[in-house]
Amino acid sequence: AQRVTQPEKLLSVFKGAPVELKCNYSYSGSPELFWYVQYSRQRLQLLLRHISRESIKGFTADLNKGETSFHLKKPFAQEEDSAMYYCALRLAGGYQKVTFGIGTKLQVIP
Amino acid sequence: GAGVSQSPSNKVTEKGKDVELRCDPISGHTALYWYRQSLGQGLEFLIYFQGNSAPDKSGLPSDRFSAERTGGSVSTLTIQRTQQEDSAVYLCASSFQPVNTEAFFGQGTRLTVV
Fold this sequence. Notes:
heterodimer; A: mainly beta; six-stranded mixed β-sheet; three-stranded antiparallel β-sheet; globular; B: mainly beta; four-stranded antiparallel β-sheet; 0% helix; 53% strand
């Protein structure tokens, strides 16, 4: 079965410092990878997906199939980035469920 | 509707009572998920409905938990004989697979078992 691992429950960084939220997955095929974000008192929402190869709010994530990783990065953290971040995986093609990691709380210190 | 709607927003129940949580997905979405969100446990998968296929119940923690999806739309998650460890935020999400795999989440139901 597919699995998503986020090794850090809490990541604290200073404003302006680089951010890297780690995500590793276990699946031998070609998955779809996502990052979801939940800001305080808001709904969980999609931040970005690997197939889009886009930068959202300054965040990027590259799928590394060799290392089975999909780390989320931002060069300069902002206070408004403080939130819960969830990495998610879905098997590509057809009708497949989405599996989430346990989440990492990002705390940006002013 | 405009988004995934869950009711009630908050539910306080006594230990041993049964509760029903409702989810109205986005109209036309074929996939519906239930997750449980609790401190220290992250986002825990419970059950997945896809169209008329048999649901994936592999995440249900015990036989006290069950879910239905009527007419391919509204879903109800039922917890029987609630226990204090059932206290959590229960999230529902829907998506329009396979065309759009993004999951849209509801605001959640906060369940407190006292």
